[in-house]
Each structure stands twice: as structure tokens, then as C-alpha cells.
Amino acid sequence: xxxxxxxxxxxxxxxxxxxxxxxxxxxxxxxxxxxxxxxxxxxxxxxxxxxxxxxxxxxxxxxxxxxxxxxxxxxxxxxxxxxxxxxxxxxxxxxxxxxxxxxxxxxxxxxxxxxxxxxxxxxxxxxxxxxxxxxxxxxxxxxxxxxxxxxxxxxxxxxxxxxxxxxxxxxxxxxxxxxxxxxxxxxxxxxxxxxxxxxxxxxxxxxxxxxxxxxxxxxxxxxxxxxxxxxxxxxxxxxxxxxxxxxxxxxxxxxxxxxxxxxxxxxxxxxxxxxxxxxxxxxxxxxxxxxxxxxxxxxxxxxxxxxxxxxxxxxxxxxxxxxxxxxxxxxxxxxxxxxxxxxxxxxx
Length: 348
Ligand SMILES: *Cc1c(COP(=O)(O)O)cnc(C)c1O
Known about the structure:
Layout: H1 5-8, E1 31-34, E2 44-49, H2 59-72, E3 77-81, H3 85-97, E4 100-106, H4 112-120, E5 124-128, H5 132-146, E6 149-150, H6 156-173, E7 179-183, H7 188-202, E8 211-217, H8 222-225, H9 247-256, E9 260-264, H10 266-280, H11 286-300, E10 309-314, H12 339-346
Parallel strand pairs: 2-10, 3-4, 3-6, 4-5, 7-8, 7-10, 8-9
Antiparallel strand pairs: 1-2
Helix pairs in contact: 2-3, 2-6, 3-4, 6-7, 7-9, 10-11
């Protein structure tokens, strides 16, 4: 039977006998070999399908631990700021744990699927004027003044749980890959992967650290520019963040692994989404597709080494943001319900 990450990797996580074994069977996501995307590079490429987590994004890996530890400490409820996926995940685990959840969202900038999830799971959702960075300040204040637990990635248990994805990749490949490309928003996840890979190497479970390549959207690229961005803008709303909380950790991760930060445009992200879907049968949300965009860009520059082995971390499910493909694909043709009309369209 499938278990969640507290059971699967409990020995590597900061839990005690008093930590509730909370689980929605998060983790154990597929590592799918990509055979067509970038095949001309001669690299061995995999996608880590984090959209296969219970609420459709990697956020579940850290949230299960954050909520379990909050329960252990006797919390009344949880609060978070979110570009969408954190709120969906927090709301789901709070529901499963029987505690209250409040989410602060930047108004008009949360993909429909994510908002719908937070509401369905019974969270109190507050849309605020301002971007994610502003929402996070208010979430910190709410935690301090209302005595609830903040479950943004400043909560250390979030990043602990998120290390589990790096462990799964090493377990599946029998070692760490040569490189790993991952989208960077608040910069927690890239830091968590780095810590996860470091732990496996230090304990002899793997032999190397992968080069970590952190990808941002051109309009929200503080890590690439080396300074906060006041008005981040991108259609990849999950990484629409101008002042990443884990910037220092992420910078260290990239330096330690001889990696890099890079930016891709929204157009490159949408092109990559279409290619992933049409060439590989994988539908990931725009922020996740930034990894494929970065890969294709590096491949175009001849920078993907032949025979090297790498992973694209596809952080969230395409269904989260069902409107994204409408930006570049035509609507279906509508015809009267007659075979003649249908045949005419199908034989074009
Ligand atoms: C949260 C999120 C990110 C960014 O992760 P950070 O840890 O904030 O850098 C990327 N993609 C998706 C789909 C996300 O939900």
C-alpha cells in the first residue's frame, strides 16, 4: 500500500513518536523518461511529475509535515500567503487534520483551479490588494496576533518535507542525476532539493550533487538580477514573486552545485508547455514548464551534455491553470450534430 512521506522517510525527518502520522499519500510521484523532448541533445531526460501529488503540486510534501508538527504542538489552525498551490495544500491537510485554515491571496492573480481547491477544502480565503510578497507580510502578522501556525516555507518543516523529492529521484535512478532544472519562486524548493541531495551524498546513498539550475520568469527574476523586483509580472503565477524568502539558501545551493539561475520569457514558457503536452503527453502548469523552456534554451545553445542524465521538476499539474493553453491554442470547432458536418471537419 502507498504511504505518505512521514511513513516513507520518517527516519530522515524531524519527527517523534508524538508526531501524528498525517498522510494523503503524498510523494512517490512518477519519474517519467522523456523520449521526444530534446532527443537531439542525446541527454537522458526525466520529468519528476509533482502534479501527481494529492492536491496537484509538490507543496503537499512539506505541508504534511508542517501540519503534523503544528498538530503535535497543539495548534488551533494554520495560515499562509499563497500564489495558489500553498493554499490548496494547506487547506487540504488542515481539513484532513480537522483544524482551521486561512489563506491570503493576491487578488486576481491566483489560477482558477487553485482557488477552487482552497474553497472546496473549506479554507477561509481572503483576497488582498497587492502581490504575494505583501500577502506574506500579513500572513506573518496573522500568525503572530491570532496564535495560529504560519505554514509558508519560512516554516522549517516545509523544506524538510520537500527534501523527499530529491531522495525519491536518487532512489529511482540509483544515484543523483548530473543536473536538475527547477522553477524558483520563493526559492524554498531549490533549497530543499539541495539539502536533500547533500544529505544523500553525505550518508553514502548517492555519489554526487546534481548541478542545480533555477529558472525564473523574465518579469519576476530577482535571483537572476541579484536584487528584489518590486512589481513581479508573469503568467506563471506560481513563481510571480519579487522578493524570495529563501534567496540566500538558493544562492548557496546554486554555488555549491556549480549550477546557475536563468530567466525565460512567458512566450518560451507557453511554447514549452505545448511541447511537453504534445510530444510527451504531460500537462504541467506554466511555472513548471519554465523548466522545459530552460532546458530547450540551454539545448539550443549546445549546453546540454550528450549522455548526461537530468531531471526537469514539473512542480504542478496543468489542470491547476486550465486557461493557460487557451493563450496559444484555438478553441474547438463547433458544428451542428450531423455526421456530414463532423466528417467535413475531421477530414480537413
Ligand atoms: C510554489 C511553486 C513553485 C515555486 O517554488 P518555491 O519553493 O516558491 O521556489 C513553482 N512551481 C509551482 C507549481 C509551485 O506551486
